[in-house]
Amino acid sequence: MTDKKIIVAVDGYSSCGKSSMARALAKNIGYIYVDTGAMYRGVTLFALREGLITPAGEILEAELESRLSSLSLTFATQEGYDVPVLHLDGVCVEQDIRSMQVASHVSPIAALPFVREFLTRQQQALGRAKGIVMDGRDIGTAVFPEAEMKVFVTADPRVRAERRLAELRAKGNGEISLEDVLQNLQERDYIDTHRPVAPLRQAEDAVVLDNSHVSIAEQDLMLRFAFEAVLAHLRGSQRG
Ligand code: DC
């Protein structure tokens, strides 16, 4: 492919198939894939481990802010995973960041302006050379408002909860109910869409993909077609 590489921003709600679509697209087109939710989860895991979130859920913000600059979050290859996964201070934390404990504390952490600033800077550095598919909540609106391709992914909340439950059960969390998962998703949606800094919203120039009633293979095809359409459009506008 002789085309210049672009930035693909994939935003949307949690557990709507966004990450697996984005990962598949990156693999198929030879781009780097970055899961920015993992980075917010990484900061949350760090805060929990260091006792910076009290049992009552209060975040010790001043201490978290002062310790953030020494925190190393990187994506590195790891046996058993087909894409680079998050490492916290050099140690793979892919499994730990997917726990319900992290999930239930991540939204308030992601609402803190200094956490967003810290991670946004790192994400912008990762995309400097383009050729990247980045998924998150604010990629097309705040991290890369100039991205050549923006996708906003949605799905019905119950369908999302069922998918998330299946994932959690596959990882051995047998005791969690559909209602618990649905409630956690809805709480996160509310916080993510109502926070003052970089709330989750559809960029005006984003293509909307609704994943409620399509298979994974169909999702991947939709995104691939959208990517090819953007490239064709860019080639056309270059020719003038
Ligand atoms: O995609 P995820 O469920 O792993 O994201 C975890 C949390 O991080 C979620 O509550 C939203 C937040 N997040 C964010 O605020 N901005 C991003 N770019 C990515 C995730």
Approximately how much beta-strand content do the residues carry?
A: 5-15%
* Shape, per Cα inertia axes: globular
Distance between the termini: 20 Å
* Average of the residue pLDDT scores: 93
Helix content: 40-55%
Q: What is the gyration radius calculated from CA atoms?
A: 18 Å
What's the structural blueprint in terms of helices and strands?
Blueprint (H helix, E strand, L loop, with lengths): L6 E6 L5 H12 L2 E4 H14 L11 H8 L4 E4 L8 E4 L2 E2 L7 H11 L2 H14 L5 E5 L2 H5 L5 E6 L2 H14 L7 H17 L12 E4 L5 H24 L1
Helix pairs in contact: 1-9, 2-4, 2-5, 4-8, 7-8
2'-deoxycytidine-5'-monophosphate (DC) binds next to helix 2, helix 4 and helix 8.
Describe the structure.
The chain has about 240 residues and is of the alpha/beta class. Helices cover about 50% and strands about 15% of the residues. It contains nine helices and eight strands. It has helices spanning about 20-30, 35-50, 60-70, 100-110, 115-125, 140-145, 155-170, 180-195, 215-240; strands at about 5-10, 30-35, 75, 85-90, 90, 130-135, 150-155, 205-210. It has a five-stranded parallel β-sheet. A hairpin with a 2-residue loop joins strand 4 and strand 5. Helix 1 (about 20-30) packs across helix 9. The longest helix has 24 residues, at about 215-240. The mean pLDDT is about 95. Bound molecules: 2'-deoxycytidine-5'-monophosphate. 2'-deoxycytidine-5'-monophosphate (DC) binds next to helix 2, helix 4 and helix 8.
